[in-house]
Each structure stands twice: as structure tokens, then as C-alpha cells.
Amino acid sequence: MVPLSYYLVLSGILFACGVLGFLIKRNIITIFMSIELMLNGVNLSFVAFAAQWHSLSGQIFVFFVMVVAAAEAAVGLAIIIAVYRTRETLNVDQVNLLKL
Amino acid sequence: MTPQSLSPLLCTIPLLPLAGAAINGFFGRQSSKKAISTIALTFCGAAFAMALFIAANFSSASAPYSFPLAHWIRSGAFTVDFDFYLDQLSLVMLLVVSGVGFLIHIYSVGYMWDDDGYYRFMSYLNLFMFFMLTLVLAKNYLMMFIGWEGVGLASYLLIGFWFTKDSAAAAGKKAFIDNRIGDFGFLIALFLMIKHFGSLDFPTLFHAVAPLAQETSGIGLLTAIGLLLMVGAAGKSAQIPLYVWLPDAMEGPTPVSALIHAATMVTAGVYMVARSHVIFEHAPNAMLVVAIIGTLTALFAATIGIAQTDIKKVLAYSTVSQLGYMFMACGVAAFSAGIFHLMTHAFFKGLLFLAAGSVIHGVGGEQDMRKMGGLRVYMPWTFLTMSIATFAIAGFPPLAGFFSKDEILWKAYSSEYGSWVFWLLGVITAFITSFYMFRLWFMTFFGDYRGAPPPDSHGHKADAHGHDHGEPHESPWVMLGPLAILAILSVVGGWVGIGGRFEHFLAPVFQSGGDLAKETAETASKATEYILMAVSVAAALLGFLLAWTLYINRPKLPALIADGLGGLYQAVVHKYYIDELYALLFVKPLIEGSTTILWHGIDQGVIDATVNNSAEAARNVSDEVRHMQSGNLRSYAGWVAAGGAVVIAYMVWMGIR
Fold first, then answer.
1. Are A96 and B631 inside 8 Å of each other by CB?
2. Any idea what DSSP says for residue B249?
3. Is B338 buried (19+), middle (13-18) or exposed (0-12) by CB count in 10 A?
4. Which pLDDT belongs to residue B466?
């Protein structure tokens, strides 16, 4: 049996990678994928805890997160396409109309 | 019918004019002038009739009685109620106030008829009557204070009656503020009475004071109360050092000057001191101060009166001077003589002002005596009545002023508290009074008319209501009637004092003072009295002759004398620069202190600055902090991540601990 801490450390690493990617990358698609990475990092800790404590609620939560992530991906990609069509770039630094 | 059964009438006397004031004040704007006059005169006349009725049932032997109208303040053992009180002293005041007041109401109908604010004027006059009657009929000091403040209010309203004129508005404020200074002293005196005697009721209070010992040296409680009361009296009755408002108060319409600033309100201080005679008799030092202030004011104001050219200003300084006489009388414990002079003064000074008003009316609003002259031809009735008043105030026998002034001078000399210094200054004042009054008389009624020729544009108005101001004209009968009645009173008013009858009438009130006077009358010889009388008549005659010489016989002489005196004359013309001195000593420091410290320092520097600076600080902080909200998504994410990291670090640290 793999100890719980391994899963949690992996989950933390995945989440940190997601955060780093979100902060550093300029391409919207990459940022988008970084978000998915963070979500999945969290999912991993959920299922790890669920297995540890023999509780189903963690598993159910993961399903919710997946559903929401799928919906988000659909909407998000649609937005990205719309942004690309209007501004012909995927560089977030150039999508800065809200900036001061 | 016993006098006591009339006591319910007492409260109606002040309330009637109040009703008149309310009706005219609320509905006067829509009413016709006839209706306004009817209401004002009816309510004021009814009060006078009531006063006469009460007087007819009251003799010098009658016991004082009171009428409790309502409870007011009940605080433990200390009570103050709305009580009206009548004794011989308040009866005299009641008759003078309501009688002269009623005559002046009648006169005002003629004098103010063409004024747009007619209803306002009549309403204020009635309001004044209410407060003045409350003042004289009060049974305790607090009710007296209501009347005291109320007449101050009425005076303010009427001085500033033509409030669109800057000088009138300023004069109103000056009168009010000067009075406030006096009222402050009065109030402190009331507090002292409450603290030490627990009552403000006249009978109770005086009963408590009577057994106390005389405070012959130093400043004891009664001396302090007396002096503070005198501060109040000096404010209301225009004595040194608070007299400066009265000459300025002449900005008001002339009937107001006659009623408030000559006959009634300004004598309230004398009445108050006379009413408090028990306190003053126990504080000889306070009384000495009263006498000194009175004497100095009498002399000082009279000298200013010499050089004034405005007919009303002369009369105003004359009033200040005559009030000084009354205080001199009170200061030598001759309270009944003071009240006697108060009464005769109300007659002849009221008459002088009304006649002066008639003159001003007749020459079309001109008040400068240098532009009058020769008016006896144009306005014979005014001339006749004014002459009587002039001779009366100058002290020619057998007119009213002679008896009262002589009484005061005699008491100033013979009283236990008197001295020949008071008498001498009094006689000098009498001489000056006679001089400036005859100067006024000669300049106004004798010689040639020096007024401006009529402007042509005025002609069309002349036919409309007979106001042809090209040539001086006599006033209507509604104005001359009161003049005639007051003239008669100025002649016969003094006769009630012959043989000490007036003093005898007031004796129940001034019990101790009355006994004192009898003792001195016995010790001093009759011969001395006649000699002193002859001297004061001679002084009056001398004043007349001097005025005749200077203004009729040798009209060039006054200018030469004025040139010869140089600086002194200028000082007198400018009223000894007292107004300027007060401006320098009190007004300017106050205004500058208020401007620099209170306005710029505290209001702007502290209060405004707190509000403004906190707003400024909020703006500055926001200005810095808004850079966090750059619109840059990744910086937001960075902040979120950093925040998360801090939370995790904190939890880890807690876990380790």
C-alpha cells in the first residue's frame, strides 16, 4: 500500500506546476491547461483521502469537479476561439482591454 | 369693594396688549389700516382703562396684593410662579407705562400711517406693552426678567424697524448686545439670590434680607448682588459704561424713541433698583456706586448733548442724563424721588420726543437742527407743547421737572447717603441741561427757516395727501392730541409731589427709606432747602440766558467759541470718542480674535482640517493601493497564489508548533 503522503506530495507538485504555468505562461491555451492541472492535482488529493478513509464523498466530489471542469473547458475554449477571432492572438498580455 | 377682589384683573392688563400684538401680527398683513389701528388702540386702551380702574380702588393705605396666574418652576423648596403683584410702586409704573404708552399708540397712528410696515409696527408696539407691563407687575425677579428681556426684544425689533437701512440694523444689534452685557450681571445676581435665599419672590426675599446687618465695609453678599443688579440696570437704563446704545437707538421711528427709549423701557433699570431697595439699603457701598454712576452719567451725557446737531440725538443724550439723575436719587436712598422724576420725565421727555417727531414729520424727515429754524410760525401747536416740555425739563417752576429735579437735588444734599458733591454736580448738570434744551428750542423754532427749498418733482404728491414738504406744516390732530395731553401732564404732573404727597404715597413700599427721609427733613433747616431751590432755578435761568445769547442775540458767537476751544470742542462733537474707544478696546479685539483664532484657527484649522485631511488621506492611500488593481490577470493570480502560500505556511507553522 502506497502511503497517503506520497499522493499528497504528488498532488501538491501537480498543483504547484499548475500555478506556475498559470502565472508564467502567456498563451491562453497553456494557461487553460494549467488550470486543468490544478484541478486534477486537487482531484488526486480527494481520491487519496477517499481511499484512505473509505469514504465515498471524496469520490463523488471528484465527479463534480470533473463535470464542472468539462463544462468550463467547453465554455473556455469557445471564449478562446472568440478571442482569437477578434484579436488574432492568444497572448494574454495583448488581451488587456480591462487594464488600467 | 376691597382692592383684593380686583386681583384677577391684574393678569389681564399685560395679556390684553399681547392679544392685540398677536392679532395684528398674524392677520395684520391682510387687514386694512383702520382695522389695525382699531385693534392696537382698543387693546392698549383697555389695558390703560383697567389700570385706571385698579388705581381708583387703591390708596396709599392699601395693602399690596397679588394674583397667582399659574405654576411655573417647582424644584424642591424653590418655586417660581407666574404671579402678578401690585403695590404703590408698581401702580405708579403701571399708570405711567399704560398711560404714556396709550398716548404714544395714538400718536403712532398719525406718524406711521404712510409706512408699509404699519401693521408690523403696531404689533411690535403692543408686544412691547405686554412685556413692559409684565416687568412692572411681576412678583418675582424671574418674571421681571421675562419682561426685562422681552422689552429688550421689542426694542431691538423697533430700533431695526427700517431694517433695510444698514445703520438701523446695526443700531438694533448694538442695543441688543449692550443689553446682553447688562443682563449677564442681572442673571448672576439672580443666581446669587437663589443660592443664598432660595427664593426670587419680592416679599419672601426682602423679608429674608431685612434682618441682616448692613454691609458697611468690603464686598459682602448683598453688596455683590446690588452691584450686579446695577450692571443690569446700567445696560437697560443706558448708564456709564453701557450707555452707548441709546443714542444709536434713535435710528428707530420717533414714537419708538419716545415710548421705549425715553418714557418707559429705559426707566426699567431705575424701577428695578427701586424695587430692590431693601437690598441696596443693606449695602451702602453698592448704593454709593449707584449714586456715583448716576451723577457721572448725568454730567457726562449732558456735556455731549451740547454739541449735537441731530434733534433726536440731543434728546437721546438728555435722556441718558436724566436717567443719571434718577440713579443719583436711588443712590442716596431717595427712591421715591427717583420714581417721581421717572414719572415726570416720562411726561416731558415723551412729549419732547413726540414734538420732535412732529417737527421731523413737518419738515419732511429732516433731523438736522441746522436746517430747521423759525418753525414756530409754521407749527404753532407743536411749538407750544414743545416749549412747555423744554421749560419743564429745564426745571422752571411750576412745571413738572422743577419739582422732581429739585426733590432729587435736595435729597442728594440732605440725605444720610448724600453729599454736597452730588448736589453740585447735579446743579451743574441742571445748568447744562437747560442750556442744550434751549439751544435746541431756539435753533428749531426761532430765527429763519434754513431748510432746503422744495424740489419740483414733489408737487404732484402734495395734492394727494397734503404732504407738501416744500414748506413746513403742522401735524394732523391725531398727533397733536397726545402732545396736548402730555403737555398738560408736564405742567401738572409735578404738583402731586408738593408737600411730600408723592413720597407719602410710596412710603408703604419704601418704609425704611420714608422714615429716613423724615428724620433728615427734621434735622435740615427749611431755609437751606429754599436756598438750594433758588440755586437750581438760577442755574436753569442761566442756561436759558446763555442759550439766548449764543443762538439769538449773537448767532456768530458759537462758531467762535467752538474754534477757540479747538480740540475740546471736537472731542465733545465726537462724543468724547467713546464709541471709537470701545471699538478699539472691545469690538476690534473680539472681531480679530474671532477671525484669527476662532474662525481661521479653530474652525478652519481644526474642525474643517479634520474632515478635509481625513478625506485627503483616504484619497492618497487609495491612490497608492489602486496600483494593485492593475487589470493584469496574472498579477491577480500571483496575489491569490501568494495569499494561498501564506495561509499554507501559517498552517504548516502552526502544525509544527
1. yes
2. G
3. buried
4. 44
